[in-house]
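Structure tokens please, single chain.
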Amino acid sequence: MLYPQLVIHDADGWVVRQLTELAGESRWLVREAKTRPAVLAVARELRPTVLFLRVDPADEKAEDFALLAEVHRLNPDAAIVAVSDVKLSDTDRVAWTAVLLDLGARYVLFPPLTRPILEDLASGLMAASIRRVVGAEPPKTAERVIDLASEEAHA
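Here you go.
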């Protein structure tokens, strides 16, 4: 199996700084993809992948939303987390969450964003991604069980 990877598309590097220590301890690759082609290139790789994609709902350009949809189309097994640092009203947050989930995000995060939340989410999604690639458990070999209460064991 190829090493699991965290792909992070974040303009200012905040998400990378929050997850680098966890990735190192867990032996995951961390790939900071600053451009759309870079994100698409690593999303095509068939390895356990969790993508953190920074989005700005207030941005009139829909580049991040198109990128989210494209990554989901290319690799539906990649777990995509849409992260926004924009504070929205409850109504707007619900509406934008629905849009991002429809485009392929598995989770959508709005402020307050904390390191433990990001780490827990990354760990859980990566574990699920690895299980999908490797399988839940290795098959157990059939062992012969000796029942000491049976008559065959005393023969």
